[in-house]
What we know:
Elements: H1 3-28, H2 33-49, H3 59-73, H4 76-84, H5 93-118, E1 123-133, E2 136-144, E3 149-159, E4 162-170, E5 173-174, H6 175-187, H7 192-208
Antiparallel strand pairs: 1-2, 2-3, 3-4, 4-5
Amino acid sequence: MSTTRIRCYTxxxxxxxxxxxxxxxxxxxxxxPLEDLKIPIETVLSLLKDTxxxxxxxxxxxxxxxLVITRKLFDFTEMSKRALARNWKxxxxxxxxxxxxxxxxxxxxxxxxxxxxxxxDETIIFLNQEAxxxxxxxxxxxxxxxxxxxxxxxxxxxxxxxxxxxxVNIEGVSLIKNYRTQFDQILAKESPAQLIERLKKKVxxxxxx
Length: 209
């Protein structure tokens, strides 16, 4: 083997030895579904507990900060597809985007109203995660209240190296299936455009209040 080839071979080994720990750390640091859920939820809980936001004038600021977190955690486009199920294909590309946008606003408002209005220093316990299929997982949690514990399961899937929520099951009831039933009934009588308009009006009324 020539001196030049030996040097190249040696350099290659050195680079491999340098890079291997970096690659190993990168792999070991890949977040699990439970971790990708736990961190943002605990951040939301910290915001809810912050006494600064007890002031009514600070409520909107608190709301805005929580919405930034939830928009990254929940995949509203995927939730829209699943809520519409077979009806999704009957929507034009523009209608699909419009529906996803307004459904995201509707879900966000509903979520914010509930946690801002009903949070009473409850604790959330992260129980475990179960692999459902390749790239999908179920993270089980429970909300501890003084009177009883409420089981809440999050269906998550991996996209762009991050685990995101596409359904929430509360006490055995699927959020997405519940909406799917409602949308099926509406779309049996009305057009996609009419359903979108229904949701827009609900969002507008909420903003007006």
